[in-house]
Write a structure and sequence with these properties.
This protein has 294 residues and is α+β, with helices and mostly antiparallel strands. It is built from 8 helices and 11 strands.
């Protein structure tokens, strides 16, 4: 048959166990046959194996057939391949928690993880930081190169930021051109380097569009969780700090702790990181093979 890949001659007279996938343990089949004996039927999802070895999901219904004497004469099973249905369900579940464009966690999943991170920070006493990242002049990219190129830039930045994280840290696409990162168990000494790494890695990345390379920068707001913080207050503070970076000239980091950070001023060189404040000012969008810096 088309679903299993077996011919009629290969299955007639043989035990259905020939299509068993080993996805289910003995207790599963014990429960199935218990229901058939007590109720006369069973239906549910089963994972079986096609002739080519592929494991697939099917919806199976088994009914008991009795003879004229009332005794069980045989069982009749019917099934349908639900591979496409399962794939659609999994996609819907995935999109409930992940951004379709960047594959980063979305707001819903990020909110859950930040809630857990705040609780863990309170229990352990370890520092929890939040970074709010926004692409600078993103509207100009969409207006100049089109929304398709804008989407490609967002994907590039998302991958760059994700690779800049340590194992265990989390970044999400907050919406539009905004990203938010949870940095756990971090010191005041290492957090500026992590935040600065975000900026510099994005700054050193580019997207080729035709004969141009589009370069972008990001503005970052960073804050450390306080005992009284909720998810909303922590996000709001990081968001406001990011906007201060925007107003101060973009492509920089702003924090709410002047003793540990540089405030509105660009980061000084530290452990191999250069001071973006020493670089030439960005140029307008270029043409004819030039770098388009935004």
């Amino acid at each position: 048959c088309q679903i299993t890949g077996f011919s009629r001659s290969e299955v007639i007279g043989n035990n259905p166990r020939m299509m068993k996938s080993d996805r289910h343990d003995r207790s599963f089949y014990t429960s199935m046959w218990g229901a058939i004996r007590s109720k006369g039927f069973w239906q549910g999802e089963v994972w079986d194996r096609r002739k080519n070895g592929e494991v697939y999901p099917k919806w199976l219904t088994i009914n008991t057939v009795h003879g004229e004497d009332g005794e069980i004469s045989h069982y009749v099973a019917s099934f349908s391949d639900i591979t496409e249905v399962k794939a659609k369900q999994e996609r819907i579940e995935y999109l409930a928690h992940y951004d379709a464009l960047t594959d980063l966690p979305n707001r819903m999943l990020f909110h859950e993880r930040l809630t857990r991170a705040i609780a863990a920070s309170r229990r352990s006493g370890r520092t929890l930081a939040l970074l709010f990242v926004d692409l600078d002049r993103f509207k100009e990219i969409n207006d100049t190169y089109g929304h398709h190129s804008g989407d490609l830039v967002l994907k590039m930045v998302a991958q760059t930021l994700a690779h800049a994280l340590r194992p265990g840290d989390v970044i999400c696409r907050w919406g539009g051109e905004e990203f938010v990162a949870i940095i756990e168990n971090v010191s005041y000494k290492t957090l500026p380097m992590i935040a600065n790494r975000f900026r510099l890695l994005v700054e050193n990345s580019y997207l080729s569009v035709g004969d141009e390379n589009i370069r972008v920068s990001v503005s970052v707001g960073a804050t450390v969780a306080r005992l009284e913080d909720t998810v909303e207050t922590l996000l709001h503070r990081a968001d406001q700090l990011m906007y201060k970076s925007k107003k101060a000239g973009k492509n920089r980091l702003t924090t709410d702790d002047p003793e540990a950070w540089e405030g509105l001023h660009p980061m000084r060189a530290e452990e191999g990181y250069t001071d973006p404040g020493t670089k030439p000012a960005r140029k307008p969008i270029g043409r004819k093979g030039k770098i388009a810096e935004l």
